Amino acid sequence: MGLAVMAAITAICVEAATFGTPAVAAATVEAPAIILAEASEAPAADDAAPAADLTVPPAEDIADAPVSNTDDNLILEEEQFSGPLAFEGESDDAVVARLVDYLEGVDTLKGDFTQIAPSGAVSSGRFYLRRPGLLRFEYDPPTPLLIVANSGLVYVRDDELETTDSYPVGRTPLKFLLQEKLDLERADVVAVDRGVDTVAVTLASRDEETEGELSVIVSAPEMQLKRWIVRDLQNGITIVTLDNVAAGERLANRLFRAPEAGGQFLKN
After folding, report:
1. Quick one: how far is CA 251 from the chain centroid?
2. Which of 218, 145, 216 lies closest to 175, judged by CA?
3. CATH classification of 6-256 is 2.50.20.10, yes or no?
4. Full pLDDT tens readout for the chain, 268 residues
5. What one-character-per-residue DSSP string does 38-80 give?
6. What is the largest distance, in Å, between two alpha-carbon atoms of the chain?
7. How far is 258 from 56, CA to CA, in rounded Å?
8. Which helix (H) or strand (E) holds 95?
């Protein structure tokens, strides 16, 4: 749900919510920062990637910064630029219009994701997107979470605690990815950054209920969603990188069913 990105790129929701138990050892897994860059911690496996210091570059360096894991430390590497920048000669407004046309033309996407939480903790899994309004994130073990967006709500299911939290989609910058029509009259374009083969557009809602900023990173010129970054109100950064993305495939309705509440339903 502080384009994660996504996550966040954002601690997207207003106050941090804790979905896990107290940390058991130094290493923890943070999620669901993919939607709410609010840290939730769950015990990590012994071989889980350790949290690392993550230095996030300024917006102008984000577009072409691939994520890599070197010496067990997750870092952002700056790509060596060679050649003209994407859509050179076009105005920022024209680039934003290209992005809007692309997002509004997306029907379904599915693939793998890797999430870097504000602490540097790393998690991964599968994602499914069906526009408008439907989203699913399945986390790989040891993260016990399932996130589903449906009917204007984001549900966060923690199987370990047997709890389900819910949040209005409109409180998160990821609403920009889920809206049928991206309403730029209710959003500010904070930045348009170009790399050799990528473009990053950072959006902030003018609605007071929406917290944080979303940077959407797409490949250029073909325009395919690659990454989003969410920046929360405390300047925390969540990065969500997509891989093996397939577009236009039929996605079953069952993928987007709200998770069973199980035990206590914590929030409405």
Report:
1. 20
2. 216
3. yes
4. 333 333 332 332 322 222 232 222 223 334 444 554 433 333 333 343 333 333 334 444 444 444 433 333 322 334 455 678 999 999 999 999 999 999 999 999 999 999 998 989 899 999 999 999 999 999 999 999 999 999 889 999 999 998 999 888 888 888 888 989 988 888 899 999 999 999 999 998 888 777 788 999 999 999 999 999 998 888 889 999 999 999 999 999 999 999 875 544 344 3
5. S--EEEPPTTSPPP----PPPHHHHTT--EEEETTEEEE-PPP
6. 56
7. 34
8. helix 92-105
Tokens of 69: 């894991």
Residue 161: which residues within 8 A CB-CB, separation 6 or more? 19, 20, 21, 144, 263
Helix and strand element counts for the chain (H, E): 3, 16
At 184, the amino acid letter reads L
Structural tokens at position 70:
């070197």
- pTM across the whole model: 0.71
The DSSP bridge partners found for residue 192 are 201
Would you state the structure tokens that stand for residue 111, as one six-digit string? 């693939």
**What does the domain layout of the chain look like in residue ranges?**
6-256
Collect all residues with Cβ–Cβ distance below 8 Å to 126 and sequence separation of at least 6: 110, 111, 112, 113, 137, 138
Distance between CA atoms of residues 70 and 51, nearest Å = 13
Q: CA 195, 213, 121 angle in degrees (round to 5)?
A: 80
User: In Å, what is the CA distance from 177 to each residue of 35, 36, 72, 173, 209?
Assistant: 11, 14, 32, 8, 17
